[in-house]
Amino acid sequence: MRRAPVADTPAQDPWAQLRATTRARIGLGQAGDALPLREVLGFQMAHALARDAVHAPLDAAGPEAALRPHPVLHARSAAPDRSTYLRRPDLGRRLHPKSLSTLPNGPFDIAFVLADGLSANAVERHAAPVFRACLARLPGWRIAPAVIATQARVALGDEIGERLGARLAVMLIGERPGLSVPDSLGIYLTHAPRVGRRDSERNCISNIHTAGGLDPELAAAKLVWLMREALARKLTGTGLKDDADPAALASTAGLPPPT
């Protein structure tokens, strides 16, 4: 499709209204046979932020302080460093042998894992607010010490949950950065976690961030609803649909109803 010409004012730009509804790069304009310089520079900046997010190490001190007074443990995967983690996803799915002995055995109703994944920034900024919002909605639940995991893939939560003896495992993990949001958090919920669980046996809540994404309070409300349904039905994944009333969830999260 031919790129739209750059308009002198918003009133002359037929793409302005569409651009206001999405973070996607549409109607970028043109300068001769190329993109305008501002769009080229903007793309390069977004690409640099995404690359930095993938390689940035997790500063666990911030999330740990935000989780207190809830007890916090630390674990790492079998991937020894970031380079290996990116090249060997299988190692990111299993615990390092030294981490096995640090995890107490429950029983617990729920185990929360905060994992760097592919965006440590997402965990540092959004995981603790989701965790605290969940705790406020779970009085009386047996909640395991929170585990901060590094060089972690989603499936690492299964082994951690199994070692902790938890009925449910919740993985709060940095999602793969895009060219619009480098700090998006994802949540993966697994019933009866154990090594070897398939992706189809998990429920996912994604795109949690404060730049137009899912609000952390609303994400927590969705997660707690799914957790209660998971224990009642004894399953997660494709058999557990998110049938919660959006308006009711927004109300419990203290947010205006969706439009």
Architecture overview:
The protein is of the alpha/beta class. It has a single domain, classed as 3-Layer(aba) Sandwich (Rossmann fold), CATH 3.40.50. It is 35% helix and 16% strand. The protein is built from nine helices and six strands; from the N terminus they run H-H-H-E-H-H-E-H-E-H-E-E-E-H-H. Strands 1-3-2-4-5-6 form a six-stranded mixed beta sheet, with helices on both faces. Strand 2, helix 6 and strand 3 form a beta-alpha-beta unit. Helix 3 packs parallel to helix 6 and helix 6 crosses helix 8. The chain is globular, with a radius of gyration of 20 Å.
Concise overview:
This protein has 259 residues and is of the alpha/beta class. It contains 9 helices and 6 strands.
Low-confidence stretches: none
SS element count, helices: 9
Which percent bin holds the helix content?
25-40%
State the separation between the terminal residues, measured CA to CA. Answer: 32 Å
- CATH homology group: Ethanolamine ammonia-lyase light chain (EutC)
Proportion of strand residues? 15-25%
Total E-strand runs: 6
Helix and strand run: HHHEHHEHEHEEEHH
Largest sheet: 6 strands, mixed
Return the domain count.
Answer: 1
**CATH-derived architecture:** 3-Layer(aba) Sandwich
SSE-based structural type: alpha/beta
Q: What is the mean pLDDT?
A: 89
CATH topological fold name: Rossmann fold
